Task: inverse folding
């Protein structure tokens, strides 16, 4: 443990604290400081309930930064408010969930407080932090060389603590002063392409770039077709290539699923993808690379060419069961 002053930045939406906040608090308590402080930003009418829930669940001191400037999320407003607050506190480590929102303002914040920025942290050593590189193929160990640091913590990498160990923490509300901003959030709305089929599926068959081409998606569709309550997922890379719509994306910036069976087809195992499916009851990975990091997450691994394995598996199933569902 580093044992320095530490702040955990809580993220929330529609009055609900993101679960990744509690994971980040557990990381901070385990590896940075025994008694970190949680900071939450929101409008005046919402700040006390949010801060209260955080204090009740974590047992940590919670500071609520309240003001109209942060009533709606805006990276510029969050950054300016946190810089103003943290500059008065001296050297500190700041831990932020590595979500689309967290990574939006973390780099700006690190510059503003003169800190290094280490993103996508998924482990820790003796004064070092571990992150995956090259699509999860290697892991890098990084040591901060500045007295202050901003860390973004990968969702799913650390389990949240079950509850406050010594009762609820204390709450302090600090009013924010207004800042002149060059941007303003007008409002937010949920993406219209949310894939409800994925969230309800008992079996998810997911495609990675290891498929080789969009034409080979037929293999994933073939495999998915033998299960009655199945859905097709994908990595961010597959969606970026246009092989599947982003509604199929699973991972940090996509859907989160926990089906009874997750079949990872040609997926390397980047932590951004794994964070969206690691709670599946049974994970089976198919990949030609025996060193692919997906095998560290999978319960069963199959080292084979998808173009060979999937047709053989489906043919064997049909010989035994006919063309009906599994």
Result:
């Amino acid at each position: 443990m580093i044992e320095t002053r530490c702040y955990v930045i809580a993220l929330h939406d529609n009055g609900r604290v993101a679960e990744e906040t509690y994971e980040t608090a557990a990381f901070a308590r385990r590896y940075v400081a025994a008694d970190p402080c949680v900071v939450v930003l929101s409008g005046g009418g919402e700040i006390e309930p949010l801060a209260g829930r955080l204090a009740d669940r974590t047992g940590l001191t919670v500071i609520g930064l309240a003001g109209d400037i942060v009533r709606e999320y805006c990276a510029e407003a969050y950054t300016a408010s946190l810089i103003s607050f943290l500059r008065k506190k001296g050297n500190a480590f700041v831990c932020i969930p590595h979500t689309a929102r967290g990574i939006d303002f973390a780099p700006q914040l690190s510059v503003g407080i003169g800190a290094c920025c280490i993103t996508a942290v998924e482990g820790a050593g003796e004064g070092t932090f571990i992150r995956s590189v090259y699509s999860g193929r290697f892991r890098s160990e990084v040591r901060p060389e500045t007295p202050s640091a901003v860390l973004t913590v990968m969702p799913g990498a650390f389990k949240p603590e079950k509850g406050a160990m010594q009762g609820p923490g204390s709450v302090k509300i600090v009013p924010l002063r207004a800042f002149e901003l060059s941007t303003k959030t007008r409002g937010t709305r949920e993406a219209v392409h949310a894939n409800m089929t994925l969230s309800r599926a008992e079996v998810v068959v997911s495609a990675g770039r290891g498929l080789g081409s969009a034409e080979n998606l037929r293999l994933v569709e073939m495999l998915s077709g033998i299960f009655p309550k199945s859905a097709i997922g994908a990595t961010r890379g597959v969606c970026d290539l246009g092989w599947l719509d982003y509604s199929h994306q699973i991972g940090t910036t996509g859907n989160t699923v926990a089906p009874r069976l997750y079949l990872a087809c040609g997926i390397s195992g980047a932590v951004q993808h794994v964070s969206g499916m690691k709670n599946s009851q049974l994970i089976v990975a198919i990949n030609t690379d025996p060193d692919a990091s997906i095998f560290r997450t999978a319960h069963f691994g199959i080292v084979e060419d998808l173009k060979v394995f999937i047709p053989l598996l489906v043919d064997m199933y049909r010989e035994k069961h006919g063309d009906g569902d599994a």
Remarks:
- The chain has ten helices and 16 strands.
- The chain has a mean pLDDT of 90.
- The two ends are 49 Å apart (CA to CA).
- The domain at 196-321 is CATH 3.40.50.1220 (Rossmann fold).
